[in-house]
Amino acid sequence: MSFSVYTVEYLGNPNHIAIFVENGSNGSGTLYHVVGTILQGMTFEKKNNTPDQSATYVKGSKRLIGHVKSDQMGQFEIVCRSIPVPGAQMTLGGKLKDPSKPLRRCGDWVNEATYKLIAEGLVMCEFDACLERSHGSNF
Hints:
By secondary structure, the chain is of the alpha+beta class. It has helices at about 75-80, 105-120, 125-135; strands at about 1-10, 15-20, 30-35, 40-50, 65-70, 125. The chain has a six-stranded antiparallel β-sheet with strand order 4-3-2-1-5-6. Helix 1 crosses helix 2. The chain is globular, with a radius of gyration of 15 Å. The relative contact order is 0.21.
């Protein structure tokens, strides 16, 4: 058995992006993402979720990446946890702590995690998603 793997977005400025594994028959599943701010830093979070039932879910934002086998979910989580989370990057005064590095947000973490999940063979990529990835598009 395999589960569908998506990216989903929630309202924010900028929108919050997460990886969603649909493992329930009613559209429910597990969200893998980082939470926090560029001021305080972020932490990894895994939680049960049904995106369509959230008031902040951006309708139409659920984009299929591929599929993961149900017996590989433990390794899937290990890979997600292995991706460094964005740390504190701004001062209270609004200046970059390290001007030589670009800001790294939740979407960057999602892209890095997605790339590694595909590269390690845990997510079997859908053709369109792989094509977009090879042309540098964000998931």
